[in-house]
Amino acid sequence: MTLPISVAEKVSFSNDKTSFRPVLRWLVDLVSSALDSAKEEEAQTVETYLQTLLKFCTKSSDLIRAFLLATLCREAISSASSRHEARTYGKISHDFLVQPWNTLLRRLRFCLLVSLRLGEASLSQPLTVSSVDSGSHSIYSWIGRDELDSIGHTQTDIATLEIQSNTAQTSFHPCSTKGDVRWKVLQKACEEAAAKRKGEGGAFLKKDSDGACVPSPAKYFLSDGDKPGPLIFYLKPHNSSVELAAHRGLILGRMWVEQPDRLDLLENSIAALLYLEHFAEKRLVSSAVSLEIWQACIRPIYRALLFGFEDVHELDESNVAPLLDDFEWFQTFSKLSIDIVQLLVATIDIESRSEGHYDFNAKSSWEYDSNDENEQQPSWPPIGYDPTLCYLENRIRSTPIVPSALRVHQGLVYASRLALDLSSIDQCVPSVDESFDSTSLFVEMTESSTACPQNRIMFIRSILLDKALAVTAPGMSMDKYVSEVISLGRSWDLNDEEIRARFLLALYETNHDAVAEDLMTTAVQNFDSSLFVAGALEIACTRLQLLLNKLRGTKKYGYVLGMLDADTCQWITKKSEEVLERQSNEVFDKNDHVPTTTLSLAATHSLILHIVVLSKNVGGSEKASALNDLSSSLLKTLTNDQITVASLATNTSDANVSIGSMSNLKH
C-alpha cells in the first residue's frame, strides 16, 4: 500500500498471461496452502481466506489502493479455488470463496463513486467501507450535496429529479451485479463531476449567456442508460424526500454562512424546510433542522446586529458588517428569519410532531446475503439511519425550546425588521441583553416589565405612523398594510383589532382620511371600536382647536366663535392640550415626521360622524354628539354666510385648515 499506484498496478496486473506477477503468485500460494491443509468440510466453513487483508481493505481510506489490493486478492482466491473445485469435484465451491471479495469490491466501487463525485473536500471524515457500514456517514447528505451540485438549488427542480429518478427504468445500484457490467457509466459520472469542479462543463452542465457552466435539466440521463446521472439515480433505496430535503437545508445553510451576501442560498434552504412540513409523520425532522438553521445562521446575525461582533465568533465581521448597513439586504434577511421563527413556533408542541422518528441503533449489513447477487437493490449502505438527523432530533427532544424564550425572540425579530431606531427596542423587551445567545432559546426569559406595555404601544404607534405616511392611495386591504405589525403585536400580547384601530388613527393623524374611510367600510367589525373612538375624539379635537385658533385670530370671522357652545369649545381646548402634553413626553414621538398638510373642515366633520356612529356601542356618545353639533354649526354658518375656506385663507394665509404639526396648538 506504500508503493505508488502506477508501480503497484504494474507489478500486480497485466494483460499478458505469461508475464510474471510476483504479488499474485505469492497470494495464490497462500490460499492454495490453506486449502490444502484444510479438510474438505472445513474449507466451506472458513469465514474467508486472506481475512486480514480483507479487513485491512474495509478500513482503508486510500480507496484506490484498497480497490487494487482487493482485486488482486479476489483474483488469487479465484485462481486457487478454481483448481481445488475441480480437484474435489465441487465440494470446495469457487463461488462461495470469492463471494466476500465480490461484495467488498462492489462496496469499494460505491465508495469510490461517492468520493470522486463529491471530492474529498465535501467529506466530513475519511471514507471507508467500514465507516459506511457502521453508519457513521450520512448517505443522504452525500446525495443532497450531489443534487445541489448537479441540478441546482431550487426545491421544485430537485423534487422533480427525485420523482423521475425513482421511476427511471435505466437506474441501477453500484453494489449490484448490474454495476459490474455498467461500470463505465459510473466512471463517466465521476468524470463529469470532476469536470464541473474544474469549470469545464460536461453532460451535467450547459453554458449560459456569459459562458458560465450551469446545471442542465434532469431529463438528460433518464432515457439513455449510457448517460451518467447524479448519485440519486444509483441509490433508489435512499431516495427519501424527507431526509434529502433536510440535508439540503443544512448544506445550503452552511453555504450561506460562507457567502452571506447570497440570500438565495438561505431562501432555498428555508424552502427545503417548508417542503418538509408536507410530511406529517416526519415534522420533527423539520423542527430539528429549523433549530439548527436558527442556531448556525440566523441567531449570530441578530446578535451582531444588536450587540456588535465582539462575542459573535461564528461570523466574519468584514463580510457581514457592510450587509447589516444595507437596508434591502436586511429586509430580505429578516423576512427569511421570520419564516424560520414560524417553523420554530410549531416546534413548541413537540409531542404532536414526534410521530415519526429514527432508530438510533445503526444496523450492520456486512454479513453477506446469498441472494445479494440477484438483488436489484442491495441492502448496503445501511438504509433508514442517518447520524446527523438522529443527533438533531435527539437534541431537540432532550433540550426543548422554552416557550417564553421563543416569544421574546419572535418579538425581537419582528421589531428589528420594523424598527425605525434599533435602540428603542431595549425599552420594549426587558431581557434583550440575554437574547440571541447560543443557549437563550432553552432558558426561561422575562417577557415583560411594568414599563414594557406602554413602551410597546408607543413603539408600534411610531411604526404605524411611518406606514401611514407611506400610503399613497386607497385600494389595499387593511392586513396588507399591517400584517407584520400584527405579528409583532401578537408576540407582545396586543390583539389584532387593536393594531388595526391604531393604524386607522395613524391614517387620520397623517391626513390620509380617504384611505381610512375606504378601510373602515371593509373592516367594520375587525378593529377595536372603543380604542378608535377614544383616539378619534383626540384627533377631532386637535383639528377643531386649530380651526378655532385661526378663527380667533381674524377680525372678519371672529364672530363665529360667539355662535358656538362655550363648554364644548372649552373641552376641545383642554383635550388638545392634554394630547400635546402627552405626545411631547413620548419616547417614540414621531410628530416631527408628520407633515404640516392641509385638510378641509368637511373631512373632519366626516370623521366626527364616524365617531358618533361607533360611540353608540362603546360609550362617549355625549362628547361625540357635542362635537358633531359644533362642527355642523361651523359648516352651516360658514356656508350660509358664504364664507368659504378659500376666503378664510385670505386672512389666515392658508388655503385650508392646517392640522399637521401639533406645535401649532401652542399658539
Structural class: mainly alpha
Strand content: under 5%
The major β-sheet equals:
2 strands, antiparallel
Rg value:
38 Å
Low-confidence segments, ≥5 residues, pLDDT <50? 200-207, 212-224, 357-376, 642-667
Distance between the termini: 96 Å
What is this entry, summarized?
This protein has helices at 5-12, 22-37, 40-43, 51-59, 63-87, 94-118, 129-134, 139-150, 155-167, 177-181, 183-197, 231-234, 241-258, 263-276, 283-307, 317-324, 327-347, 387-398, 403-418, 452-469, 478-491, 496-509, 513-522, 529-552, 566-584, 601-618, 621-640, 645-652; strands spanning 205-207, 213-215, 598-599, 657-658. It is an all-alpha fold.
Walk me through the structure.
By secondary structure, the protein is mainly α. Helices cover 60% and strands 1% of the residues. The protein is built from 28 helices and four strands. The protein has a two-stranded antiparallel ribbon with strand order 1-2. It has a two-stranded antiparallel sheet with strand order 3-4. A hairpin with a 5-residue loop joins strand 1 (205-207) and strand 2 (213-215). Helix 1 (5-12) runs parallel beside helix 5 and helix 24 runs antiparallel to helix 26. Residues 200-207, 212-224, 357-376 and 642-667 have low confidence and may be disordered.
